[in-house]
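Subject: for your reference before the review

Hello V.,

The reviewers asked for a structural picture of the protein, and I figured it would be easier to keep everything in one thread rather than splitting it across files. Below is the amino acid sequence we used in the manuscript, unchanged from the supplementary table.
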Amino acid sequence: MPFDFQAALRAARTADPGSAPDVVAGLASDLGADDVVVYLVDFSHHTLEPLPGRASHGDIPESELVATTMAGHAFTEQRVMTAERPGGVRVWVPIVEGSDRTGVLALTVPLATDSVLRACGDLGLFAGYLIAVLARGTDLYNLYRRRRSMTLAASMQWDLLPPLTMKSSRLSVAGLLEPAYEVGGDCFDYALNDRFFEIAVVDAAGHGVTSALIAALVIGSYRHDRREGLALERTHANLDAVLSAQLEPSAFATGQLGRIDLETGALHWTNAGHPPPLLVRNGAVVGELECLPSLPWGFGSLRGDRVTPLGRASLEPGDSVLFYTDGVTEAHATGEESFGLERLEDLVGQHAADRTDPEEVVRRLVRAVREHQGGALADDATLVLVQWNGTRRPV
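And here is what came back from the structure prediction:
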């Protein structure tokens, strides 16, 4: 039973921005499915939140825990899950927006044949693209992802972010911020432009709206210079100058800018007083990447003829680079030891040895940091894992 993409596109063309659950339910009925529920993952990746359909007058389904439910397994493992139910088979399929894991589609089919399951998977894929397009005209999907109220600073930060996950044949990247509903100073950005992958990781000083404003200025300046094609050293120096000129002397940010040549694996990067990233190779953390740091952006240290230090490394196919903020290693409960670099390296090595997908690695790392501090972080903790797959040459 093939999925009819032409019918799906026609149904989506005039859809109300908030009607994704109803559009998906209508298409699922063509597959003979019922009891359709669209779940979106909350901002902390802890629960899957159901989207209420406008055509349904029944009770709204309950949230599903990512860690312990069938829906959660479909989300974390990114594969179809099934369970026999009276009168049919319950099916859970991943919902993705491009490469970004968005949620899970649950539906019940009379028979779970291979063709039906493939059609269900296609419907989940379509649901991801549909929600991505419709979300541009409504706040509903953002609101349903919130398990509780979000601070103004956190809302500003989330609006700055690129997709949390991106995958291509040459490179994969996955990032996550915590605490999701109060984050204020941490941020990251990236872009894959032809043969180059560009990335920035930022930790703005302070907390709340002030730090969010610093981060917004950093990301805005970075994107401008990146799109102008400026060299990393020039972009780095411009960030220092912009913060020095536009904000108070106490306003500053640490961070890193990086560029990977996807043809050769050459990594160039700069460091503004930030913890060095970790190089992961052959299932283990090799160590920290070295680069002479400048002072944080905003101190005005790069004026005149001063040169921005540039780090260089040669990646091998399959290598990963983990960027993180100090909220990861410094996380600790009152009176207890910090999470620490050694613990971070051990966990990263374990997941790398298991060949865990980058998005699942960062989710597990953030969960470990949160649990180490008793479930509530005193500072922002951000992780971004970039994996270079190498260049696939024709045989």
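For the response letter, the relevant points are probably these. The first helix runs from residue 5 to 13. The CA atoms of residues 59 and 175 lie 34 Å apart.

Happy to draft the paragraph if you're swamped.

O.
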